TrEMBL record:
InterPro entries: Trm112-like (IPR005651). Coiled coil: none annotated. This is UPF0434 protein AACH06_18510. Gene3D superfamilies: 2.20.25.10. Belongs to the UPF0434 family. It comes from Ideonella lacteola.
Length: 62
């Protein structure tokens, strides 16, 4: 995923900034919104920015 794209994307719920998380192989896996405690998946390099597709983060994942 292009670095410039991740800088332009915002949370669809609160319009706040997102943090890109990567796996052990440095592949993008999720875009995290710390304010809403949501993790939006990245599938085949494409961010899925739908609230109903997001995973709720547990307190220790923040």
């Amino acid at each position: 995923m292009d670095h410039r794209l991740t800088e332009m994307l915002v949370c669809p719920v609160c319009k706040g900034p997102l943090q890109l998380h990567r796996d052990e192989a440095s592949r993008p896996t999720e875009l995290i919104c710390p304010a809403d405690r949501l993790a939006f998946p990245v599938r085949d390099g494409i961010p899925v920015m739908l609230e109903n597709e997001a995973r709720h983060l547990a307190a220790e994942e923040e």
